[in-house]
Design a protein that fits this description.
The chain is an alpha/beta fold. The chain has helices at 2-12, 16-41, 171-179, 200-206, 215-219, 235-258, 282-293, 308-312, 330-340, 358-367, 380-388; strands at residues 43-49, 53-55, 60-68, 77-84, 90-98, 104-112, 118-130, 137-139, 145-151, 185-188, 210-213, 221-226, 262-268, 274-279, 320-325, 346-351, 370-374. It is built from eleven helices and 17 strands.
Length: 392
């Protein structure tokens, strides 16, 4: 419209002034285009996370640094990105307007937390610069993102509470066995070991802490099956149930390691295949935390019964079997019992998204050494402590 007005003015008034106005108006779009192009080529965007690993609901910050290396101020840049907020949500497609003065850097900070474990890509998805007349558009080729891994919560259990209730591996038996001075081997102290298992005489001799191990503990194991199948069309419900299952499995693993035993964890990897990991030391537990942080939620038809064959190969007849799943039906429990036969000491089923129905509860009660428990995702530690106090 400005150009049309200049043409009319030039035709109505044939003068140098009208001609200069017409030429200047005609050259204005190419000029703004060149300035926009230079500004876009000399613009740099960086996404700098405060950390790459963060706990659930733990606040962290992401800085977006805009650097304008051109001699004129940059035109406003429209940016689309994915960022977190203070309510624990991840917001995709968030539109922002950013700018920077001539030869200057500007920092924009985004602070918040994320409610669920997993791996998230946060940062700038696209960035566009318009010319001053908003006729042309320049899209930046490099739009940085950062990968943030949200770790599951670490649930701590009481060290004095027995995890397994059978006489073979009761806490009282282990304590008296250690206190009697009868043990099979000695190793170096590791994080998570109980101080009551320290061999003080050998520790003084070697000038470092040494821990006693019983022959019984060296050979015994507990099996943990962690199932994360989806149960709803609502993604948040699935994520909440899966997080509770992961945190329950990790709490049991830490407790088993602390008791001087081995926790055999069975779960589905990212490609859907079953994976097995033995956890004996605190380093194993830390690796398991990293693995479980990004463990995927599987399809509805992939329940715990699909993993039981891998557990059956590891059972010798006395190990406790812990099955953690969002939901289970009586038919699935029948399949599990048929698969393991008599090769187990005790089976505890932890449901993270539903209470057991009447058929499942009746079937578990009929077996005798099978129990079903509901995990409260708000207080996993209390739920586990309650189940540990159950005696048969």
């Amino acid at each position: 419209m400005l150009f049309i007005g200049a043409v009319v003015f030039a035709l109505a008034y044939e003068s140098k002034l009208s001609f200069v106005l017409l030429v200047g108006t005609a050259l204005l779009p190419p000029l703004t285009f060149i300035l926009m192009l230079l500004s876009g080529l000399l613009m740099k965007i960086e996404v700098i996370p405060e950390t790459e690993h963060v706990g659930k609901l733990q606040d962290f910050e992401i800085n977006v640094k805009v650097t304008n290396r051109f001699i004129i101020p940059a035109a406003p840049m429209i940016v689309t990105g994915t960022f977190h907020d203070k309510n624990g949500s991840v917001i995709p497609g968030r539109r922002l307007v950013l700018s920077a003065g001539a030869m200057r850097k500007c920092d924009y900070s985004f602070k918040g937390n994320i409610s669920f474990r997993g791996e998230y890509l946060l940062g700038i998805e696209s960035a566009e610069i318009y010319d001053l007349l908003r006729i042309f558009r320049f899209r930046l080729k490099k739009t940085p993102m950062c990968r943030i891994t949200v770790m599951p919560r670490r649930v701590m259990l009481d060290e004095t509470t027995a995890l397994c209730t059978d006489d073979y591996d009761s806490t009282i038996t282990k304590v008296s066995f250690m206190d009697s001075g009868s043990f099979a081997s000695v190793r170096k102290y590791e994080d998570g070991d109980l101080m009551k298992h320290v061999h003080w005489k050998l520790s003084a001799k070697h000038d470092e802490l040494m821990v006693k191990q019983s022959e019984q503990n060296l050979g015994s194991s507990a099996l943990i099956i962690t199932d994360l199948h989806e149960i709803s069309e609502d993604e948040e419900i699935n994520m909440k149930a899966a997080d509770a299952a992961v945190e329950t499995a990790l709490a049991l693993t830490r407790k088993i390691i602390t008791d001087g035993r081995t926790a055999v964890n069975i779960y589905r990897a990212a490609d859907g295949s079953a994976d097995i990991m033995n956890a004996e030391k605190n380093d194993d537990y830390e690796r398991l935390v990293s693995i479980f942080a990004v463990l995927p939620i599987t399809k509805k038809d992939q329940g715990a019964e699909g993993l039981i064959s891998y557990a059956a190969d590891s059972l010798t007849g006395s190990e406790p079997l812990f099955i953690i799943t969002p939901k289970m039906k009586a038919k699935a429990l029948s399949d599990i019992l048929n698969a393991v036969g008599n090769m187990y000491g005790e089976i505890r089923i932890y449901l993270t998204a539903s209470n057991p129905d009447d058929m499942l509860a009746a079937q578990a009660g009929a077996v005798g050494n099978v129990s079903v428990w509901r995990i409260d995702d708000e207080d996993i530690s209390l739920s586990l402590r309650t189940s540990m106090q159950q005696q048969y």
